[in-house]
Amino acid sequence: MTASNNGGLEVLIYEACSEQEALAVMDKHMRDYTMRAARGEHGWICSDCCMSYPEGMPDECFHGHQGCTDIIQRDKRNAMQEGNEPW
Ligand SMILES: [Zn+2]
Ligand SMILES: [Zn+2]
Question: What are the residues whose beta carbons fall under 8 Å from the beta carbon of 55, sequence distance 6 or more?
């Protein structure tokens, strides 16, 4: 994750009371970030090949990496499911 996509996370963690709470905040932040990227609401960066996709999460890895594509497909599926469920 790069600094430009990290706005506000430090503040959220600072405000969390316990380490457990901080982890939960980070987890929710990451899921939120992934979900929005999967919907194309903001850019996405593959943590494996560090390739950035300004249009949001692609359907498959730009380099054709099967491992990346698997993660993309999984995250997209999760994003769809979470869009219909309360947190
Ligand atoms: Zn990748
Ligand atoms: Zn790749």
Answer: 40, 43
The tens digit of pLDDT for each residue in 64-81 reads 999 999 999 999 998 888
Q: Residues near 77 by Cβ (< 8 Å), separated by ≥ 6? A: none
pTM across the whole model: 0.67
- The domain segmentation of the chain, as residue ranges, is 3-83
Q: How far is the CA of 44 from the centre of ligand 2 (A)?
A: 13
Give the distance (Å) from ligand 1 centre to CA of residue 26.
Answer: 22
Q: Using the mean position of ligand 1's atoms as its centre, give its distance from the Cα of residue 87 in Å.
A: 27
Query: Are the CB atoms for 57 and 44 separated by under 8 Å?
Result: yes
